[in-house]
Design the sequence.
């Protein structure tokens, strides 16, 4: 995935015709991710992109009560199945105080001439899609040309702004009816053979699989 993200970031910077220091990469975490885990993922993302000229930031999403209640089950796979039903039926609303803070941060960065690419993992894609919608509806309006989204293992049916996404063929997120289909086949680095032996839950890991 490192190569894919590098190409995406490079093409995004080139398309916006901006200097590297005017570019901000933001990581948006999924549900049930602790602040420490989210910061670790952001730092690993920065290490993989290996650019000191890019500003890195975290848009931390606190876990929704509806998701926390699902933890009552001890079967992790069942947890994801229930999660799939929850998302598909849209029985929860992405409406958190921190979302407004994220939007204001994005707006301020854009007004100061920065271009933003948000890399969203799992349920973080719902938050990011909504953030983009909120940002585009604010008055006075600002240009959305420099605001991009790259979805990773997204359960959503689209990526805001027609952005790109990456979901591997083993990811459990593909069991969610509304999710975008897998578009990446996991392969061994050395032999190039297709990977089938890891479980669908480990295949969903941002740091363990997608980086």
Sequence:
């Amino acid at each position: 995935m490192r190569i894919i993200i590098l190409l995406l970031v490079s093409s995004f910077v080139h398309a916006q015709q901006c200097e590297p220091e005017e570019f901000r990469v933001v990581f948006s975490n999924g549900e049930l991710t602790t602040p420490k885990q989210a910061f670790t993922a952001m730092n690993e993302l920065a290490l993989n992109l290996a650019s000191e000229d890019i500003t890195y930031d975290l848009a931390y999403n606190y876990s929704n009560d509806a998701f926390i209640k699902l933890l009552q089950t001890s079967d992790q796979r069942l947890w994801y199945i229930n999660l799939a039903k929850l998302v598909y039926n849209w029985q929860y609303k992405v409406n958190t105080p921190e979302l407004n803070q994220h939007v204001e941060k994005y707006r301020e960065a854009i007004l100061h001439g920065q271009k933003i690419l948000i890399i969203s993992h799992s349920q973080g894609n719902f938050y990011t899609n909504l953030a983009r919608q909120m940002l585009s509806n604010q008055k006075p309006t600002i240009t959305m040309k420099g605001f991009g989204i790259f979805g990773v293992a997204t359960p959503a049916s689209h990526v805001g702004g027609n952005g790109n996404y990456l979901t591997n063929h083993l990811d459990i997120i593909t069991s969610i009816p509304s999710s975008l289909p897998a578009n990446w086949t996991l392969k061994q680095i050395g032999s190039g053979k297709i990977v089938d032996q890891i479980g669908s839950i480990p295949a969903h890991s941002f740091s363990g699989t997608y980086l």
In short: The helical segments are 2-16, 35-49, 65-69, 76-88, 97-111, 124-137, 206-210. The mean pLDDT is 81.
